[in-house]
UniProtKB/TrEMBL annotation:
<dbReference type="Pfam" id="PF00300">
    <property type="entry name" value="His_Phos_1"/>
</dbReference>
<feature type="binding site">
    <location>
        <begin position="81"/>
        <end position="84"/>
    </location>
    <ligand>
        <name>substrate</name>
    </ligand>
</feature>
<dbReference type="InterPro" id="IPR013078">
    <property type="entry name" value="His_Pase_superF_clade-1"/>
</dbReference>
<feature type="active site" description="Tele-phosphohistidine intermediate">
    <location>
        <position position="7"/>
    </location>
</feature>
<feature type="binding site">
    <location>
        <begin position="6"/>
        <end position="13"/>
    </location>
    <ligand>
        <name>substrate</name>
    </ligand>
</feature>
<dbReference type="GO" id="GO:0016791">
    <property type="term" value="F:phosphatase activity"/>
</dbReference>
<dbReference type="GO" id="GO:0005737">
    <property type="term" value="C:cytoplasm"/>
</dbReference>
<dbReference type="InterPro" id="IPR050275">
    <property type="entry name" value="PGM_Phosphatase"/>
</dbReference>
<dbReference type="InterPro" id="IPR029033">
    <property type="entry name" value="His_PPase_superfam"/>
</dbReference>
<feature type="binding site">
    <location>
        <position position="56"/>
    </location>
    <ligand>
        <name>substrate</name>
    </ligand>
</feature>
<feature type="active site" description="Proton donor/acceptor">
    <location>
        <position position="81"/>
    </location>
</feature>
<protein>
    <submittedName>
        <fullName>Fructose 1,6-bisphosphatase</fullName>
    </submittedName>
</protein>
Length: 202
């Protein structure tokens, strides 16, 4: 089994800024969200934890590892958040409204983000073939990678949330999104609202 965990909140999440590949640290709320994520994961089958190399993901992973008594595993550059280019640090909600297809000028194409996400998963699966692995990274990468695995739209990913999936042979199956069963997740069509509420961009 695998789980994506979105890092805890940062001040840029709080202040509605596109974060992307910019390395912004957790704030105190984000650290508490990491503790709460660990509590939700306690008692599960988890035997390993890895992350994106960005500090907000790495610290979230470190907190969860300490809480669960796991050794913190490596950071995978494939799991870095989408690069939003010149828009990083700009207001996220205004840009989401201006670019509803997420085709931000100068940003990394979403297809490339998904390809990186899948490549990262392949590396983790190869490195931990017999483990149940927690993977701490970022909202956009998690959302669009899981959407690609599931073959359907999924909502914005919340800070500190857990989304689970599994691998059988070479087939990935998504089980939960933000802690809710995939079949119970409603596709509202309100993507901008979903992303703004989730503070998705980073």
């Amino acid at each position: 089994m695998y789980a994506f965990i979105r890092h805890g909140q940062t001040d840029w999440n709080l202040n509605d800024k596109l974060q992307g590949a910019t390395d912004i640290p957790l704030n105190d709320t984000g650290r508490q969200q990491a503790v709460e994520a660990a509590a939700a994961l306690a008692g599960g089958p988890w035997t390993a934890i890895v992350s994106s190399p960005l500090s907000r993901a790495r610290e979230t992973a470190r907190i969860i590892a300490e809480q669960l008594g796991l050794e913190l595993g490596p950071a995978y550059p494939e799991l870095i958040e989408r690069d939003y280019g010149p828009l990083e640090g700009a207001p996220s909600s205004a840009n989401m409204a201006a670019y509803p297809k997420r085709d931000y000028p100068g940003a990394e194409p979403l297809a490339d983000v998904v390809a990186r996400g899948r490549a990262g998963l392949a590396k983790v699966a190869a490195d931990y073939p017999d483990a149940d692995v927690l993977i701490v990274c970022h909202g956009t990468l998690i959302r669009y990678t899981l959407a690609d695995l599931a073959g359907r739209t999924v909502p914005g990913i919340l800070n500190g949330s857990v989304s689970t999936f599994s691998l059988a042979g070479d087939v990935w199956t998504v089980d939960t999104i933000n802690g809710s069963p995939l079949e119970a997740v409603v596709e509202t069509g309100d993507e901008t609202g979903d992303e703004h509420r989730a503070g998705i961009a980073g």
